[in-house]
Amino acid sequence: MSKKIWGTIVSSAIIIGGGAGGVFWIHQQAVDELAIAPKLAVASSKEVDKSTVANTSNPSNKKTRKQIIEDSQKKVVTIESSDGLGSGFLYNNKGDVITNAHVVEGSQKVTVRTLDHQEYQGTVIGIGEETDVAVVRVPDLVKMEPLTISSAKAEVGDEILALGSPLGFENTVTTGIISGLDRSFEIEPYIYTNLYQISAPITNGNSGGPLINAETGEVLGINSTVVKQEGGLGFSIPITSVLKQVQQWSERSSDGKSAQTIRDNSSQTSSAELSEAEGLVADFYSYLSMNDYVAAYALLGSDWQSSTSYAKFREGYTYTSYVSLEKISSKRKAEDELEVSAVIAAEERKDGEYITSRYNVTYQVGYENGQIKILHGQGKKIQ
User: Which residue windows are transmembrane per the record (predicted)?
Assistant: First the structure.
């Protein structure tokens, strides 16, 4: 065989052997790579376990609907007054119960009955004249845990619970949703503004009971059945619109005196007039704090209103969020005129921030057409 042929055979064998060796090396390299932990696209079994544990090791502490109802019922009461029966609920640890004004109207003392059928005596320490809201203080309920008040407004579609004693059936719960917002009307002597419209059935005896967020257990409003229902509709007063007034009543009545006692603490006519004048000024600032500028403007005398339009009056308080009375006193200035002096603290918005400013204010108060009015006033900022 020629040397040329032998050279060809040897070269081919080398090439074939080299190829086989390469295939074997690639195969072995692949096996070695697969023996190493999987990369990128596939997580290890240990990593999967850790992820699963991370998602299940912190179960939600959210209460069930049943738990929310049970907890809420303990803080809801039935109120019996000389004029009938209604509901109410604890809102602070002073034993103060929020209810409707029409539930306790004409009464200084009422009977309050809790979930366990215990009866206690309560005193009306604050009551609205045009706003259908009142506060009853029950000393025996001091330090009892109150309901949590929501700081947010409800929205259409929010699920709600209405608690109370409809037709005397105590501890009743009805369910529904917020079906409308900003409903307003007047049913003498009360003015209802920006109400929640609800689908939960309510009736006589529900008045004053809480409207509760079914998801959080927080109070959204105060149910009011004085409003006639048509087609299964009910209405509730937003708690955010009256909370400042309610808190003011509680702060002013730390001694537990009745609302009537606060307004008229003397049998002498002159003292009663002074007390009425002070109450008028207090109501004026309460309305401003509630952004009820119409009611506040209505307390001004004809001379003041003729020199200051409602639009200008409202504009003057646009940047004031809340006003509290620190001191108040009164004296007779003339035969038909009283002078009320006070120190107030006002939360005012300036440059996007709220600051508290204090003022000395003085008002002249008198009667016009048989109604007591604020005739004139002036104020000076305390530096």
Answer: 5-26
